[in-house]
Write a structure and sequence with these properties.
Blueprint: H1 15-30, H2 33-51, H3 60-63, H4 72-102, H5 110-121, H6 134-146, H7 162-166, H8 180-193, H9 197-225, H10 233-241, H11 245-251, H12 258-273, H13 277-290, H14 298-310, H15 317-342, H16 348-351, H17 364-376, H18 384-409, H19 414-431, H20 441-447, H21 454-469, H22 482-500, H23 531-536
């Protein structure tokens, strides 16, 4: 047959060849860091049954024939599985991060990456709560309403039962610090599961799962809107947050309210930077109703909105007044509706102060208080609590001032506003009275828009690894055990260095033919995406 008469499909791959290529690609992904991370997640979930925070005064493990995993050799095996899973997930995350940053190795498409996030998350949905008993506190506080109490005025101690038994007793007399949106969610869970802690945990994860789904949708698009000099900004954003073992294990394995918050926060920010300002403010107001910290994002919306106006024409004084009024009125109306629906007013504001009961040196005020009492020990006996009261008060004043300064500095354009939001969330984490690992999702969500450099990525990896190692799955901490703490610091520093370095580790890391930084074409600063651009994102 001549070239002129060749069949039109002669040069195309056959269906069998396409199927074979698909199977080969799938196998390569299964044995890649993506597949390893999913296996690590499964190991974490299996190990959690022996080392996690099982409900107290509940016989469900015994009834299932699994009581042996909670003591003796069974617990040792469970511990080995859990920490092996953590190690595998962290190593997989590091290798994946190097591939994305350096352009080494092949990555699947965005749809496949999203499904791999599902693969990493799914085993954790079936884990026993780890690193914290907060989920039992959520349920206990929500259960108060069905028993005639006000969760913003009464503590769970007023309603004895399996939920009170299972929560951390330090919170038994405290009131709920969570906003009306989350309390509505938690009350809905308890209305279905009653006082059953096992069913309550499962249902709580289920109703917060849309937060993960929203994050899977919004995070890569938010990162792609601010590509910077990253090779693949969408993949880099997913790696920073959605493949981060610290985020996944703490928020999903915990589980914590941040499991829901991270998606709502990311979706609200994405809408705002795309030019859907009012819907974005509505979503961010809902996020604030989930946890008040999300409210830090609302003032930065003003600068983004004004920058979008500036990209079209000169900003007039009435534009400034209108944008300020719009953000304030819309967010107030949404929050007011949520508050009215919840029915217990603003009493949750008083519950915010109970965080003072958490004492660890992860925040600057608490660290300074520890240093002062330690330095004074040779000459005087100083109680930590009075010193903490002073340093934390100073920290709150400094934090308030820092937030104002950062907000004003970030007024230039939408990119600076997102950087300012990241710095503001970081200031809250460092200067508030107390901080815990899962809080760091507050800063990491806007950070995907900042295109952090390799050194900052190293800091994130080191910090995330440390937050997995220095805390134990049974709710204990190693922050005050010098020997174990030293090991945690060294391992975490090594993890951060491996991600940050440009050193090539063996022939397995094959660089692309062009290893120069990639510059992405983008619209002028502050310009909302056109309809066609939004469709491609």
């Amino acid at each position: 047959m001549t070239a002129a008469t060749r069949h039109p499909d002669a040069g195309a791959p056959s269906r069998a060849q396409s199927s074979s290529a698909h199977r080969t690609a799938l196998r390569s992904q299964l044995i890649s860091p993506l597949g390893a991370g999913a296996v690590g997640s499964l190991l974490v979930a299996l190990g959690s049954y022996g080392v996690g925070d099982i409900p107290r005064n509940n016989t469900w493990l015994q009834d299932a024939g699994l009581a042996w995993v909670t003591y003796g050799h069974g617990r040792s095996v469970a511990s080995l599985l859990f920490w092996a899973g953590v190690a595998v997930m962290v190593c997989a995350w590091i290798v994946l991060g190097r591939r994305i940053r350096l352009g080494t190795g092949a990555l699947p498409g965005m749809t496949a990456l999203r499904w791999w996030v599902v693969a990493w998350v799914t085993p954790l949905l079936f884990a026993v709560p780890v690193y914290s008993r907060d989920v039992y506190a959520y349920l206990a506080q929500a259960s108060l309403v069905s028993h005639g109490f006000n969760p913003y005025a009464d503590g769970p101690v007023n309603n004895p039962g399996p939920l009170l038994d299972s929560m951390a007793q330090v919170w038994a007399t405290t009131t709920a610090p969570y906003g009306p949106a989350f309390m509505l969610v938690a009350r809905g869970v308890v209305a279905v599961t009653g006082d059953n802690p096992v069913a309550g945990v499962a249902m709580m994860r289920l109703v917060m799962l849309p937060g993960v789904a929203l994050a899977v949708w919004a995070v890569p698009l938010l990162a792609k809107h601010f590509p910077g000099r990253r090779r693949d900004p969408a993949a880099a954003g997913m790696w920073l947050v959605l493949f981060n073992p610290m985020i996944l294990i703490h928020t999903v394995g915990g589980p914590h309210v941040e499991m829901l918050l991270m998606g709502v926060l990311a979706a609200g920010l994405l809408l705002v930077v795309r030019g859907a300002h009012v819907p974005g403010v509505v979503v961010l107001a809902v996020a604030t109703g989930i946890k008040i910290t999300a409210g830090v994002a609302l003032p930065f919306v003003v600068w983004i909105w004004l920058d979008h106006i500036r990209s079209r024409r000169a900003v007039r004084p009435r534009d400034v007044a209108g944008v300020f009024a719009g953000v304030i009125v819309v967010s107030s109306v949404v929050f007011g509706i949520l508050t009215a629906a919840e029915g217990h007013g603003l009493g949750w504001l008083t519950g915010l102060g109970w965080a003072d009961r958490i004492i660890n040196w992860l925040t600057v005020p608490t660290l300074i208080a520890h240093v002062i009492t330690w330095a004074a020990a040779p000459v005087a006996t100083m109680s930590l609590l009075p010193v903490l009261a002073v340093t934390r008060l100073i920290g709150e004043i400094v934090m308030a001032m820092a937030l104002v300064v950062i907000w004003w500095w970030a007024r230039r354009d939408e990119r600076t506003a997102m950087l300012g939001l990241t710095l503001a969330m970081s200031a809250v984490l460092l200067l508030e009275p107390s901080s815990l690992p899962w809080y760091y999702v507050w800063a990491l969500i806007p950070a995907v828009a900042c295109a952090p450099g390799r050194r900052m990525l190293g800091v994130v990896v080191a910090g995330s690894t440390f937050m997995l190692l220095a805390f134990a799955p049974d709710d204990s901490i190693l922050l005050y055990e010098p020997g174990k703490l030293t090991i945690c610091v060294l391992v975490s520093a090594l993890a951060g260095w491996v991600v940050a370095t440009d050193h090539r580790f063996g022939s397995a890391e094959q660089y692309s033919t062009d290893n120069r930084p990639v510059t992405h074409p983008q619209t002028p600063a502050g310009t909302p995406a056109t309809a066609s651009e939004r469709g491609s994102r």
